Structure formats: structure tokens, C-alpha cells
Amino acid sequence: MRRLLPLLPLLCAATYDTGDSTPYPHTAFSEKELAKSVSKAAKFAGIKQIILRNEQGDTEVDKLQELDKAALSALMRVQGLEDPEGKEYDLLVPVGQDRIAVTVWWAPPAAVVEVGPALQPASSTREDITGVVLEENGTSWDPRALGIVADALATLTDVERERIEGLRIIRSPGPPKGARSLVKASGRLKAVYIQEESGESSLVLPNYALEESKGTFCGPASAPKEVAERVLLHELAHAVHQGKWRARLAEIQALEAAFNEPEGKTTEAVARHIELVEEHEAEEQAPLVAAWVKRFDSAPTAYGDLSPIEAFAEAFALYHMDPAALRRVMPDAHAWFESDYKP
Hints:
343 residues; alpha/beta; Collagenase (Catalytic Domain); 3 domains; seven-stranded mixed sheet; four-stranded mixed sheet; 12 helices; 11 strands; disordered N terminus
């Protein structure tokens, strides 16, 4: 192998995609058979250079036999996908009893592959989770579901945790009735964030949103996480960007409750109430989303193209799980989260 400069700048993905959820059965072949197949497929796709990436930098692969079975299987999987050019794929490759994390950047005339460890299932207890309210509605919290919540919350900043303080996270067999058509139309397994006009908010985690990662993972290959964690972080992004709205509404409601007390309707309290109500009625869009729209007209993922709100949530989830991936696919958004982002 030949050592290259660290992190080749031309090898940047255009969009982030965790890939297909169905594992590809190439691991049934030997390394020799896989290397031969990858060589043919790469030549057909215009790939002239295979690069192995790790913490030390990038290394050009002289002979495909130098790659292990997980890397070869992942390369075969990506070249078989529709229009893989310019995309990043995070794949789980079954090797024995393990599911090895492999990231592939397919960017002709080169392809980059990074092999990480096996994905370890999340696990935690209720005692490890604070600041949110865990509820059950037909489905109980198991250690894995608790672990996914604990891992997602651990990526948030102190200010972001304040914005979601008291959020109800509800385990459920399926989505709320009012959200079923939305979930079906999106074609995406996801959780559901619900914001009531009263200020009450909740995040529903249906069983399918916590399905075990089969063929994909999230985060860097060096520290793979389950896809469900990114699903949860996407919905937590909605809770974060609504945080100031909820806090203002709570203050309005507290002032109105105090007005019923003999000494509650002071001049200062009335003035503050008027100020808050005017702000509330004038606000057409959450400040965070408005700041995003002012700066960006694109999204880091295909799902984010649905709307600016979804674009922000996708960028938020990616920034918290795999900031390097966000920097590759949308460097301006990564810079915004690093400097101008104020939850």
C-alpha cells in the first residue's frame, strides 16, 4: 500500500445516505472471489483508485486482496446500488456473528472505504436518563430502547437539554392516529414529534422506529451507532427548535394564572404579558428554522429536501451523530452549527 495525504479533499460526498437496509450476501464468497468481482465492477464504473481510510490518513490499495472481507463486500454492495456516484454509504456487513461497520464513498475515479468495529447494541436503564419524561402506551421500555434514548441525549449540549426539559417520550406500538397518514406518505420509518397549541409536547417512539439496524448504521465507522438513534435525534431537533416557543408560552400561561390572584396583576406583569403575546402572535416561524432558511436553501439528505424544517432536523441529527459527515456533504451547515447556531 502507498500512504497518501490525509483526507483527500476531492473525495467529498454530495449527499449523505445510510444506504439500503437489506444486507447484501457477498460474505458467502471468499476474499479471492470478492476481490475479482470488485475489480471487474470498479473498472466498469470508472473506479481507478481504491483508498483505505483510517485515523492515520488515506492509503492507496495496490492489490484488492489487501482488503478484508468486510471492505470487499461493502464495495460490491455499493457498486450494485442505483446511481451511487457522489454518495456516502454506511453499511453493516455480516461477518460471522458480527455486523461490521463499513463506510464507502463512491466518487469516480476513486472509491474510499473505511472499516470500523462491529456494531454493539445500545443498552441503558431509566436511572441513566434525566430531563425527559419516559412514558408507555402499549409498549414497555426495554434496555435497548432506553440505550438509544440515553445515547441520543448524551450528544446534546446543556442549552439543547434545557430546550427539551420535561419532554414526554412515549413508547407505542405504532404512530398516533393523526400522524399515520404522514408516516405512510413519507415512506420513512420514524418517530413523531407532536407540539400542541397549549404548549404540551411529546415525542412518540413506535416499535418500527426502533427496529434493529440490519444493513446500515449511523455515525462514523470508527464508532457506529444504530439508525434508530439518528431517527430520534431528528425528532429531538424539532423539540429543540420549538423550545423557545414553549418557554414563552409557559410564561404567558403563568402570568395569566397569576392575574387571578389579588396581587398578581401588577403593571410590570401586564406589560410583560403584552410583550410576550405580541411576540408570540408575530412569530411566523421558529427562530432557529428562520435562521436556517435565511442561510440555506438545500439539505444534507434527500429527506431534508421535503421542507426547511426537515432540512434543519436532518442537519441537526447528522451534526450530533457524525459531524465529519455533515462537514463533507454540507460544509457551510457544519460551520453554522459550530459558530452561529443558537438554540
